[in-house]
Amino acid sequence: MTEDRFETIAIHAGQDPDPTTGAAVVPIYATSTYVQEAPGVHKGYEYSRTDNPTRTALQTQIAALEGVDEAADGGCVATSSGLAATALIGYMLKPGDHIVLPDDAYGGTFRLVAQVLSRHGIEWTATDLTTSEGFASALRPETKLVWVETPTNPLLRVVDIAAIVAAASAVGAKVVVDNTFATPYLQQPLTLGADMVMHSSTKYLGGHSDVVGGAIVTNDQDLLDQLRFLQNATGPVPGPFDCYLTLRGIKTLGVRMDRHCLNAEAIVSFLASDDRVDEIWYPGLESDPGHAVARDQMKRFGGMVSFTPKGGVDAADSIVAKTRLFFLAESLGGVESLIEVPATMTHLSVHGTDLEVPASLVRLSVGIEHIDDLISDLDRALG
Ligand SMILES: Cc1ncc(COP(=O)(O)O)c(C=O)c1O
Fold it and tell me: Global pTM?
């Protein structure tokens, strides 16, 4: 399988024809338990909290796409949501341990660290991971985990993964990269030295806004064993139907990402030449501070675009109320375009903190509809 290319791996890894029936598509194994020949003698499955064949197929597929080194005995743990994946990683820490996270992280990640893990004696510092000064000053001898999100949600800042890995390893901290926005099609953090990759598969991996899920991928067998133990011990597992939907969505990931990127680039050109727009955040812009790093570590620049309109919050609220094709909704990464105001929607939980985002910021998840229709929709909504 390893010599196959991305689009081929997406369709074949973990998806051999079903050995008993020849079914070409991985079945939805809707079973909680598995019959044993004698106590402890079985076909590798005992109980579906611990494992399920549809989940195994999904885990194999995601691990292969993230470039897991089979010789290193790495792998993937699929979870019931992205935050369940984040929580599992958090369960690996103990009181007194310290986490560094970006000052522009997904609001739910921040809430989990600041309002849940902190109750259990885990300390944290949110800092600008795009500068080596910010990062160096946040590190402590107790730092066990550095949480990287790149590009970040919603300001699309780009973090140099290899540089963070080099600095974190000097203090013995593990590096996790939330690869939700880029997906393995655009960026493979494990190949840049990250210890773990985390996904909200609810987004581009699933790709059709019809399932909530998450995943953690690692090349480190010890980390994988710990994560599997913690998942079995705490229970945040995805159901087989959810695994099937995600597995099916991922088959077209490469094709979809190409179109998401193409459409986003065209929308950025449109916004950049429009005098109703104030500022644009997109790592594909040459003027973007993260452009050089993004060009090196990403294949293309992704389907997410943020901007502020002239006219402030009122203008932002008016735009999001007027689009027809861009649905006003949270989430991202589906085939349909979405629009939102992070300050009052996805990032409400960081209001009043250092992670607060501009009140008039509008975030677009650019879908794969026809680009001319998307631009007309935005043009009309800009008023
Ligand atoms: C970058 C990022 N990470 C993690 C999450 C959490 O994932 P989930 O909603 O699947 O729990 C999200 C959700 O929006 C996200 O955008």
Answer: 0.97
Phi first, then psi, for residue 120 (nearest 5°) are -105, 20
Residue 1 has pLDDT above 80, yes or no: no
Atom of ligand 1 nearest to the CA of 84: 11
111, two tokens: 């809430």
Q: In sequence order, what are the beta bridge partners of 31?
A: none
- Annotated catalytic residue, options 144, 157, 203, 300: 203
Nearest to 152 by CA among 19, 350, 313: 350
Average pLDDT on 317-343 reads: 97
Question: Is 204 annotated as catalytic?
Answer: no
Q: At what angle do helices 312-322 and 371-381 cross, to 10 degrees?
A: 130
Element (H, E) at 101: strand 98-102
Structure confidence at residue 2 (pLDDT): 61
Å from CA of 109 to ligand 1 middle: 8
**CB-count burial class (<10 Å; 0-12, 13-18, 19+) for 291:** middle
Mean pLDDT value of segment 250-256: 98
**How remote is the C-alpha of 74 from its chain's centroid?**
19
Which of 106, 185, 244, 282 does the annotation list as catalytic?
106
178 is known as an active-site residue: yes
| Chain Cα centroid distance, residue 126 | 19
- From the list 215, 203, 183, the residue with the least C-alpha distance to 334 is 203
- As a whole number of angstroms, the distance between CA 236 and CA 94 comes to 20
How far apart are alpha carbons 198 and 85 in whole angstroms? 7
pLDDT in tens, 285-312: 999 999 999 999 999 999 999 999 999 9
Asked if residue 365 lies in contact with residue 332, where contact means CB atoms within 8 angstroms, the answer is yes
User: What gap in Å lies between CA 86 and CA 123, rounded to an integer?
Assistant: 16
Angle between helices 82-91 and 221-234 (to 10 degrees): 110
Mapping DSSP to helix (H, G, I), strand (E, B) and coil, where does residue 333 land? coil
Give the Cα separation of 339 and 24 in Å (integer).
37
> Is there a contact between 310 and 278 (Cβ–Cβ < 8 Å)?
yes
Q: How many whole angstroms from 178 Cα to the centroid of ligand 1?
A: 9
DSSP 305-319: EEEEETTHHHHHHHH
